[in-house]
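Cross-check.
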Amino acid sequence: MLTHLTDETVIDLLEETAGAEARRHAAECRLCEARLQEAQAGHRLATSAEVPEPSPLYWEHFRRQVGRRLEAREPRWWPRLVWGPVLAAAAAVVIAVWVPATPRGVGQTRVPVLPAWSALPPAESDEGLAVLAAIAPGAGEALGVVADCRDLGNCLAELSDEESRALAEALRGQLARGGTS
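Predicted model, tokenized:
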């Protein structure tokens, strides 16, 4: 037994040129039978449509246009002559780009390497370090920062989200160690 019918087989059934096995499958399979009925309904609709016949002038014009286009399809030999030099030039450009003229390192100057850039401000201008020094005095001394924040609430309010997260993690770590620094 066949799997479901292909579109081509449904058209063959519609035109009554399909084999016996395809006709048997369409009779037994609900899905394929529905597809065949849908195709038959579409075919009936298309054949019942009233389409006016074009005028005789149209067919004469159509015939002349087909004749002109067939005559214009003469093979052209000159584009073939142009392709040879164009392809040779393209190959030369590809080779010039891919193959360096000198070996690596010969005649090349060394480019100085720039130091890595950091998004963090220098320790001298980092206000967050002063807050950390006020909260954890041992950490401030290790960093060489002295806290000049008199009101801890205001200092904490000025922290960025990233600084607040870092402070929370430091405090959690200190609490986990038993509160000793």
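Residues 125-176 form one domain. The longest helix spans residues 78-98. Passed to J.P. for a second look.
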